[in-house]
Each structure stands twice: as structure tokens, then as C-alpha cells.
Amino acid sequence: MNGSLSLRNRLNRTVRDIPRSGIRDFFDIVSTMRDVISLGIGEPDFDTPWHVRESTVFALERGTTHYTSNLGYIELRRALSAYVAKTFGAEYNPETEVLVTVGVSEALDLALRALVNAGDEVLYHEPCYVSYRAAILFAQGVPLTVETHASNGFRLSRSMLEAKATPRTKVLMLNFPNNPTGAVMSRADLEEVAAFVRERDLIVITDEIYGELTYDGPHTSIVSLPGLRERTLFFHGFSKAWAMTGFRLGYACGPAELIEAMMKIHQYTMLCASSLSQKAAIEALARPNADVTEMLDEYRRRRNFIAAALADMGLECHRPLGAFYAFPSIGRLGMASHELALALLREEKVAVVPGTAFGACGEGFVRCAYATSMENIKEAMNRLRRFISRH
Amino acid sequence: MDELLRILRANALESRQDLARMLNLTEQEVERRIADYEQKGIIRGYQAILNEDELEENKVTAVIEVRITPQREGGFDTIAQRISRFPEVRSAYLVSGAYDLLLFVEGPTLREVAAFVSERLSPLEGVISTSTHFMLKTYKRWGVMMRQETSDERLTVSP
Q: What ipTM, to 2 d.p.?
């Protein structure tokens, strides 16, 4: 009588009730089809720089295949500390204030578990990366969603935060440059948010995985603003700027007490990030500039191209300023995002991700990732134009 | 390097409209800049990058190291240009090190390339010695791998 065993009821309630990522569902459909041009891929199309791959092979040959310190190789943490100071404007002690993690995803999970007691509120903005809401729920936090809008470039403002925050609000999560909107926050925008954070005595978690990828001006990190470093966890990693997604290597920088708390969970659940990936990261940081600059120039050209092509076909799209996503409005076509994405896939074999995968307020938008070749982007835009003229 | 040139160096067939979109310029501006580069001789021409190993052609390429004596007037340039004018010489570079000129010479057969070296190149006044290497296989040319695994291992949709 195997059939009578209901495992579903034995599941943790939070896990049971949380839906699968909308991206996952869409992937299942796309993966059954052939010859699809995908603008749905949230990772770079560039190869990991060859010097990084070559040095990883060398590390493997040399036998760098053992556990590392829980925090990560000190050599890597020193390099990270120097890189973050130079690029993002905050100094961290590599001995106590830097933790190497299995991607930013792990850092996010550690931070929320380290900070949140059941019922504490966490402010975050949508549309956003698919895992934020789930990560808050897994940590037994209460997600407070702040909806951002195309009309102001999907940026956050103080009044938007004030409208949602309560005395039980403990953490504010930020992600700029943003996936899926390509939005960035200027220094002035961030100063407003920083003032709010200081007044409300919040902890900030800032995921700046796309920090190198801004196209019209340098990125400003909230952690560089006065009084923020001591209350901020800064996350970054190697997936985007170095095209190292499969290495699963991220890191968290923050005040020693917070890093220590995250390290405890990391120690008991993960032990350490992959030794080989850490060696690869050391090599990546040893000479990052040429690789990243080349990618950045190529992404900018694609951003320019896709923005012009969308405008030509009459799709409104706020100008993406960072990351590698355009988030055009499909409102005028009179279809829901999911419906449109399916129709576009069926009729023209172009995959885009429905905006709703990134939060309810993503309805009326689709995410077009330009982390694919210019050739693919051109063909995808041709097909999209054809699709629009029919609908 | 101007971004326009970098794009053209990777793909000279990029259309004016697409170039304009990528660079956020008007097509007229793109047209004007290209004409300017052509006129100044910075753009010297447009060629296809071929994987010649795949062509059933009778052709051999030799890489030739040449030691030369600089001339009283004109230094290395006079003799280097003289050598470069031979149509058999596809590329010629002045280099530092144990020899002075590095030539890429093409001919229909090994015998003919050898004849070029012994009968045309070596007897030139100012040429001290040559060392010839025949190329066997091309792996990469002008930044392009001749055999590239094109499979994209990425998931077709990811967050």
C-alpha cells in the first residue's frame, strides 16, 4: 500500500507552500524545443577567461583538492579586501570581515538566517532576483515587498520604503544594478535610502553581483556612504563579471560580528567553498581589468542595440543602465506576460522570461537578457518585430 | 582603439544600421567615420578569414626568418620593402631577436617556395641568411580558432 503514504503532509510547511521558481517552469517548456533563440539566460555568454581556467587546471594538478579554512583561503580574502576597497570604496579586514561562500546565493541564505528571528520583517524590492522572497521565507522572516516602477527607472525612493516599513522591520535587501530590470541607483538615490536606513536603524544586505556592469557611469555602492559600512553586508562574486557561474563562488564583507554569525552557519552546513574555485578566484583577481573591460564594452554595444531595436518596434523600455537585462513593457500588446512569452516561444522560437517570474509587479513586462551573441540578439529582434506586427 | 574599429576588426560585414545602433550614433556618422579611416589608410582593406586547411588547394605556407644588413640610408626599411613587394610574401614584420624579418610566404608547392627562397630572396643584397619553416596546420588565425566547439552548455533559461 505504497500509494497511501502521503509525504507531502510531512514536509515543512514553508517549503511545501512555496511555489517553484517561475523560471524553472519556463525552462521546462523551452528545453523541449529545438532551435530556440534564448534571451532567457541569466549568465554571461562569454567563456571564463582562459588564464582563470588554465590556472584552475594547474591547481588541480598540484593537488589543491582539500578543505580550506571556513572563511576561505586567506590569500583570497586579502585579494578580495583590496578589490572591494578599490572598486566599491569600503575597507574590510581580511582576517575577520570577509567570508568566501558558494555563490552569492549562499551568502544571502546565511545572512538572513543569521539575522532574522521568526516574524522579523525584511524589506526588499520587486521585480527582483527569483530567490529573495523564498530566502526570506526560509529564514522565517516576513517579506515586505516594495514595488518599483518603470516610470522612475525601477529605482527605490525613501517614500516607497517609508510606506512599507514598520517598527518590526529589521533588514533592507538591495540589488543594484538590478536583475531583471537593469536599473541602477545613483549616489543621490542611495543617499536618500541610506538616511532612511540610519534613522530606522536597519541592517542592509546589498547584492552587488552586477557591480562591474554599468554602462553609462561608474557604479556607487551604498556601503561607501557615511555610516553604512557598520550596518551593511556587502555581497559580491565571480559569476557575472568574470563569467564564472559554474564555479559557484561568492563572498560577503561586513562587520566582524555579522560575518562571524554567518560563518557559524556556513561552518556547520557548507564547511568551505570549493578549493579549486577559490584558486580560480585568486587568479581572476590577479589581473581582472582586461577581461572585464572587454566584456563590458561588448555588453554596452548590445544594450545600445537592443534598446534601439525595441524603440524602433514601438516597445517602451526604460533604458537599462546596468547588468545585462532589458525589461520592456509589453502592455500595448494586450497580453499577460506569461501568455506573451509562451506565444513568442511557440510562434517565433524566441525565449524571454515573463516579468511575473520576478514578482507580481513584473506583470506587463518581459525580461530580455542580452548575455548572448550579437547575432542572436539581431535575429531575436527581427523575430520579435515580426511577432508584434502580427499581434 | 576606436570602438568602431574594434567592431569592424571582428566583423567587417557589420551593417551601417547595426553599427549605428550599437554605438548609439547615426548611420551618417558611422559612414563618415569609416570613410575617414579608409581615406587616411587606417583601414587598409577587408578580407575573409578562411580555414584554408579545409580547402583542397595546392598551397604551402612557409614562415621565414631573415637576417638582413641595414642600409646606409633607410636602415631596415629599404630592404624590407623590397622583400615585401614580392607577391609571394603575404606578411612581413620587422622583429627583435636573433633575426630581423619574419616573412609569411605562400606558394603552390614546397618546391616553388624553396625556389623563391633560394633564387629570389637569398641572393638579394643585404640578406645575410634565411631559415625556412613550413607550416603544417593552422589552429588559430587573426584571433579566430579554426575549430571551435560551438555548443553552448548554458541552460536555455536561467535566473
A: 0.75
